[in-house]
Amino acid sequence: MLDDTGLKDTGLKGTGPSGPVTSDDLRERVREFLAGHDPVTLPRLEFLGARFDAGLASVHYPPGLGGLGLPRAVQSVVDAAFAAAGAPGNNPERIGIGLGMAAPTILAFGTDEQKQRWLRPLWTGEEVWCQLFSEPGAGSDLAGLATRAVRDPGGADQWQVTGQKVWTSMAHQARWGLLVARTDPDVPKHQGITYFACDMTTGGVEVRPLRQLTGEAEFNEVFLSGAVIPDADRIGAVGEGWRVAQGTLMNERVAIGGAALPREGGMIGSAARTWREHPELRTPGLHDRMLRLWADAEIARLSGERLRQQLAAGQPGPEGSAAKLVFARLNQDISAFELELAGADGLRYQDWSLRRPESVSFYGRDAGYRYLRARGNSIEGGTSEILRNIIAERVLGLPPEPRVDTRVPWKDLPK
Amino acid sequence: MSRAAGADHPGLLYSEAEDELRAAVRSVLDDRAGWPAVLARIETDEPYDTGLWHVLAANVGCAGLLIPESHGGAGASYREAAVVAEEVGRSVAPVPYLGSAVVATAALLEVADGKLLRDLASGSVTAALAIPFATSLSVPAPLGTVRVVAPQPGDPAGQARLRGTVTGVADALPADVLLVPADGVPDGLYAVDRRAPGLTVAPVVSLDATRQLADLTLDGVPARCLASGPAAVRATAAALTAGAATLAAEQLGMAQQCLDMTVAYLKVRHQFARPVGSFQALKHRLADMWVAITQARSAARYAAACLASGDPDTPVAVALAKAACGDAAVHAAQECVQLHGGIGFTWEHPAHLYLKRAKSSSIGFGTADWHRATLAGLAGLPGPGASGGPL
Q1: Residues B159, B222 contacting (CB under 8 angstroms)
Q2: What is the pLDDT of residues A102-112, one digit of tens each?
Q3: Taking the model in full, what pTM does it have?
Q4: Which of A265, B19, B335, B375 has the fewest Cβ atoms within 10 angstroms?
């Protein structure tokens, strides 16, 4: 979550444009706002829009853009005050890509007009965002992407985009897509990319569900066939798209950081419950695995807690890059264990029908679903192999592999 | 069994004071316990570096960390003690820090022996608990094979005599005082002077020569009873708990040093006209080592924090830490040997010092498997055949 710093609300002080702001000041501001905007009677979007306009949406954003220019840590004070008043929320699960990736990218690289146009409906949830990054031919090697954006030969200030994007969650509900496309194939691959916001309702944008091995379709394929994007919707300079995308991906990693859970709060809780309820399923081999998984899961949870303490103390370390690797491996091992533990029941599956879930949860589904869905955890958001490269090169400082692809023009690379 | 997340969670970071302590210890160890010195020493008659130990114990104050200021100690906690252990592990220093300043001290704190605590804090006396290094913490704690025997004519009142053997004791060689659990009347924990007649402390050729073990033989040795009955059992249990948690921190230090050495070597070692550290097959192994160490560090810090605050979750925390750090250290040391290639298999390279210390430490105070097995009871995950009760 964008605004979750894990800090408690007591004693926090931010320094806003008009001097120090205490938690009490912020609560008072929320009280004043609520006095003028009844959370019960006002329509939801209208209430959320007014909250944005009052700078009480993301308080670390600048004034006029939903915030008050305060430290991110004090957001929890505001959120708690609104929640206590029973105010409607913006359903952050549904607009996670907008909040976690689009908004920080627009804030960092967008023009004033773009910030004014996009941030408000993004935060209220009126406009959903998706991410048009991966392609069938560009997964781990995102910079090798082949979707082409050509400046309209008519000289008009617009681009024509042709190509195929994949693994796009929420594309079927999205108004906007964060798009990286190749604008210059004659330069090395990282240099010829430009970043756009693509209107998903425009002609030439076709969204098709992408059915995954669980049977359902969380994701989409997006086909771009001469879709027109006004140059005003370009984010950052032409050819600067890779740098902008790096900023987006960095925010994705922060967003994946994870929430605080109690002991047995994750997938291990489900396996431990099954273990306790079914003594007849226990074998010595499974017992050893159960204890090993419980220990590893609890240590991973402690590591998450340690990470939050580091962030709260203003000492962010590289340990965050370990978290996703551990999380993926544990989810896979625990769900595989649970399925075996289930024995004959593990041979059944709830439902293979093509469904389109709005959000993804491991819970409320059977162990077979967890087993299958967890296979994606080591692929999505950076494969475990790419994460190991990143740790080896950026954390441990090991030299990069010799590469043939970074100095020649993109058009000359073998494909 | 619950441990909530959030602001009341025990702190898992290193404090500024802990960082300063680490720097002080590291500076002494870098200066006096470089691996060539350690390697040279282990083949001499004095495998323990008593001179170095005196500097660490008395000058840096490592011997009295856990001892209250009222007894001449630093009044610090297991958090600080763990930081020192990390550095001792990092340098595979042959000093009796774990055995004297942690294990024996924990037992003496439990029985509140002011005189011995004061001597230990000053660094003038070194002590060891006379139990096999491979002893796991179990309840009730094992009391060994030593028996209390009849006093001899002329023995002063209050003096007991002990007979028996204890094998494979860590840090007993340089100890001035041995704390001996014994059965008999009364069964308890006894203090034995190293120079007492009838006591033999025989060095054992040990897998880990940087922590050489000793076999103790007691033949009617005079002894002073420190505690008897349940109080003695509690003292031994406290010592084993502190020993396991602090040994975990030592293992963490070994693992980190093995990773650091290997990373440094892979940056400079060239084969096929490129640094071998640029090969993905090797990078991924180092990345996995690093990940395992980040996890082990969280567990070690949690155990030290729980022990420091007397948290009721301490048994779980110690089991997690000893299992994770033991596995991480052995894995890192084995990888260190392998990724160094031929040079890593030689006597002249320090990798084997870490391999031997890591493997021995993984057996000391309970293996990883043994500690994980204790979670069956602690976390309510009974094995086959056991009745599955609620938490």
Answers
A1: yes
A2: 999 999 999 99
A3: 0.90
A4: B19
Q: How does pLDDT run across A107-127, given as a tens digit for each residue?
A: 999 999 999 999 999 999 999
- A61 DSSP 8-state letter: S
Which among B283, B298, B319 has the least Cβ separation from residue A388?
A: B283
Please tell me whether the interface predicted TM-score (ipTM) of this complex is above 0.85.
Answer: yes
Q: Which CATH superfamily does the domain covering B147-229 fall into?
A: Butyryl-CoA Dehydrogenase, subunit A, domain 2 (2.40.110.10)
A401 with B386: Cβ contact below 8 A: no
DSSP 8-state code for residue A317: -
Per-domain residue ranges of chain B = 16-126, 147-229, 234-378
A to B CB pairs, distance under 8 Å: 155
Domains of chain A are: 13-89 (no CATH), 129-240 (2.40.110.10), 257-381 (1.20.140)
Between CA B87 and CA B62 the distance in angstroms is 11
d(CA B362, CA B254): 12
Mark yes or no for CB contact B383/A261 under 8 Å: no
Q: How far is B165 from chain A (nearest CA, A)?
A: 35
Confidence class of residue B21 from pLDDT cuts 50, 70 and 90? very high
Query: Cα separation of A81 and B189, whole Å?
Result: 59
User: Are the Cβ atoms of A290 and B381 closer than 8 angstroms?
Assistant: yes
| B322–A contact, CB cutoff 8 A | no
What's domain B234-378's superfamily in CATH?
Answer: Butyryl-CoA Dehydrogenase, subunit A, domain 3 (1.20.140.10)
Rounded CA gap, B7 and B22, in Å? 26
| Catalytically annotated residue among A135, A252, A340, A358 | A252
Average pLDDT over every residue of A334-363: 89
Q: Rounded to the nearest 5°, which phi and psi values hold at B2?
A: -140, 150
Among B residues 49-78, those touching chain A with beta carbons less than 8 Å apart: none
Chain B CB contacts of A308 below 8 Å: 5
Q: Which residue has the tokens 């094995």?
A: B383
- Token output for B11: 């702190």
**B interface mutation test: which of A398, A401, A404 has the most B CBs within 10 A?**
A398
Ramachandran bin of A22, using left for φ above 0, alpha for ψ from -120 to 50, beta for the remaining angles: beta
Left if phi > 0, otherwise alpha if psi is -120 to 50, otherwise beta: which for A301?
Answer: alpha
Q: Is A32 a catalytic residue?
A: no
- Chain A residues with CB-CB distance to B383 below 8 A: 282, 284, 287
Q: Which of B290, B298, B320 sits opposite A396 (nearest CB)?
A: B290
**CATH homologous superfamily of domain B16-126?**
Acyl-CoA dehydrogenase/oxidase, N-terminal domain (1.10.540.10)
